[in-house]
Amino acid sequence: MATIKDVARHAGVSVATVSRVINGSPLTKPDTADLVKRTMRDLGYRPNAAARTLVSKRSLAIGVVVADVSDPFFGSLVKHVDTIAHQQGHHLLIGNGYHEAAREKQAIESLIQNQVASLIVHSKALDDDTLRDFSEEHGAMVFINRLIPGLEDRCIFLDNYRGAFLATEHLIEQGHRYVAYIGSSHPIEDTVQRQQGYEDALNTYRVTDETHPVMMAFDTPDETGGERAMAKLMADNPRLSAVFCYNDIMAAGAMTALTDRDFRVPEDVSVVGFDDSLIARYLHPKLTSVRYPIEEMAALAAEQAIALSSQEPMRDEKGNYTPTLIKRNSVAKPSE
Question: Per the record, which residues fall in region Disordered (predicted)?
């Protein structure tokens, strides 16, 4: 006798999708529903009572997939999604993807199988086609920090390139000509976009030449990675006077490396971070940083996802956010 798993396997969909079709859920695409129904007929599958109750009650769970919830950036994202969820009587289920395709896929599939009403996905390792397939399987999926062609109305993202350009431009405008970049070693689009913004700012202001080379170092996007990268840059480039860092956590590590070597921030070396996370306000000196409005973005993602799951109109608000530079005390004119 055929089982619900047999139907899912033959139709090329998840068990959760078959369950939604059985229960007449509006979240399933018509073409997918037709395929599942044909497969059920072909296999002679008859839904039992357990299958019919899988989605018979409206779920109040919101699934959230992030890289690592222990990271302060993603912790803030989850916190602000939870705030909106709580206000509307929902609760969260969380999956970690660790910027690995297999882990991201597993996290999304697990949340779908757990019958979450809506999904907020931060994915950097899965390709666009895979995410499009998931969005067809689950009709209330919203993507954060990602722009997927064809799904623009479900994407909430920041212009990483513009943020990096602003940070580098600020250092150049202060008179710095030996400006370095500390980047993440993770092979994700944020890394590429921020590096490109840094390089284009140098080229736009004609800073780079034989005497002013591009100076970059890459490591894990945490305090230790920032510290190691800064140590390498200082060893290789003694004239370096400013550094733009991939995120605030790496900037904190870079500042530690500098002070441990008796360099003063910003008198000897200016430092700019990215994210404007809580740590930026409590470092000494306070860190100049590119603001990543993750609170607003996470709240919008939660509202849009809940609206999709309830088949209500989404807010008429664009998901494209523009970064701003928050100037504090970690940047000064070069000493020479």
Answer: 310-336
Domain architecture of the chain: domains with CATH: 4-52 (1.10.260.40), 61-158+294-324 (3.40.50.2300), 160-292 (3.40.50.2300)
Residues in the chain: 336
Burial pattern 65-91, b for ≥16 Cβ within 10 A else e, equals bbbeeebebbebbbebbbebbeeeebe
What order of strands is seen across the sheet that includes strand 61-66? 91-96, 61-66, 118-121, 141-144, 155-158, 320-321
Q: What is the DSSP letter of 311?
A: T
CA atoms of 217 and 215, how far apart (whole Å) = 7
Going from the C-alpha of 310 to that of each of 26, 119, 154, 210, 305, the distances in angstroms are: 10, 13, 15, 59, 9
Cβ–Cβ under 8 Å, residues 189 and 124: yes
User: What does each C-alpha distance from 132 to 62, 65, 106, 135, 140 come to in angstroms?
Assistant: 19, 16, 16, 5, 12
Helices (H), the chain: 4-11, 15-22, 30-43, 49-52, 72-87, 101-113, 128-137, 160-173, 189-204, 223-236, 248-260, 294-309
Q: pLDDT tens digits, residue range 254-309?
A: 999 999 999 999 999 999 999 999 999 999 999 999 999 999 999 999 999 999 98
DSSP string, 84-150: HHHHTT-EEEEEE-TT-HHHHHHHHHHHHHTT-SEEEE--SSS-HHHHHHHHHHSTTEEEES---TT
What residues are paired with 245 via a beta bridge? 182
Q: Read off the tokens for 38.
A: 């044909």
Q: What are 82-105's pLDDT values in tens digits?
A: 999 999 889 999 999 999 999 999
Could you tell me if 266 and 329 are in contact, meaning their C-beta atoms sit under 8 angstroms apart?
Answer: yes
CA distance 47 to 297: 40
